Amino acid sequence: MTSPYTELPGRAFWRKGVVERTDIVRSDLYIPKFPITRKHRIATAGSCFAQHVGRTLRSAGFNVLDTEPGPRVPPAALNAHGYGLYSARYGNIYTARQLRQLLQEAFKGLKPAYPVWEKDGRFYDAFRPGVEPDGLPSEADVLRHRAQHLEAVRKLFSSLDVFVFTFGLTETWAAKCDGTVYPTAPGTIAGRFDPERFEFLNMRYGDVLSDFRAVGKMLRTLNPGIRFLVTVSPVPLTATASGQHVEAATSYSKSVLRAVCGALWEDHKDVDYFPSYEVIMTQTAQGQNFHGNYRTVSAEGVDKAMGLFMRAQGVAEGGPSEETSETPDSGAEGSRDEIDELVCEEALLDAFAK
Prior knowledge:
Elements: H1 14-19, E1 41-46, H2 50-59, E2 63-64, H3 75-80, H4 96-108, E3 116-119, E4 122-125, H5 139-157, E5 162-167, E6 171-175, E7 181-182, E8 198-202, H6 205-222, E9 227-232, H7 246-267, E10 271-273, H8 276-281, H9 299-312, H10 345-353
Parallel strand pairs: 1-2, 1-5, 5-9, 9-10
Antiparallel strand pairs: 3-4, 6-7, 6-8
């Protein structure tokens, strides 16, 4: 009787696929479901690891959209104020719930609870508190700033071909009155924690899957033919409010997110999964893909993950993709002259000049 394993490729076996693998970058750990080329308009969002995808694609000449490019100052100053990290200045979007909420706010007029937080007489956007490290002078300034941001979000998500999203966390904090979620706990960066107003949530598999499917439905309506590339951040939790040990809580969070990505990959032809999590966490690396704090992914680890992605997509190290003859569609990116000045641009330029 023939074994059902007889005809399987080497990548299906631990010994051949892992133990005998000499170079993960040149391995077949990732076989793309569909190509991503320079002609595609690409948007990125998610947890911090999504920044590496966008940065690598942009440096290789891919058309990574940016509808909030910011003023002309050095990259370090831009990044410190949330510019140039993702395709819009939304900061880290750790959960699928937060992403769903952003799209509902931008396209359906959702009015989330407690949108402005205060600290030491300065005011912050509760949904991206880190993009203005020193806050803004008034609540009205924050609301005007956010209105401009939502316009940039509408522009971005109304014109794209590929959406790259990195799932980061299952844990979040929410407003008790309507379920509004926030990227950080009130009082961490700004605001004040009030147990009468806010509560801790730890999303389950069904919650995350339902949220991202709702995101997919909205984006497919806006962009028929859109494709999704999903990943899971390998970065462990800094802290947990779940009551578990932080290591167990991290395992739970990443397991749920990886299971969701698996279901999306299985159920949708237009959703691909890139195993950046597996590249960084592989046992063959013996922990060398992290720095000494066991949280921060090393540059070598990032290079391995993105090297695998680029080679699998037909882009050799330092070489052109198959679409070298294509001129990138300007799409939602536009020129800096076409982007409305943001509230904080003058302040950022002044700060840098000092």
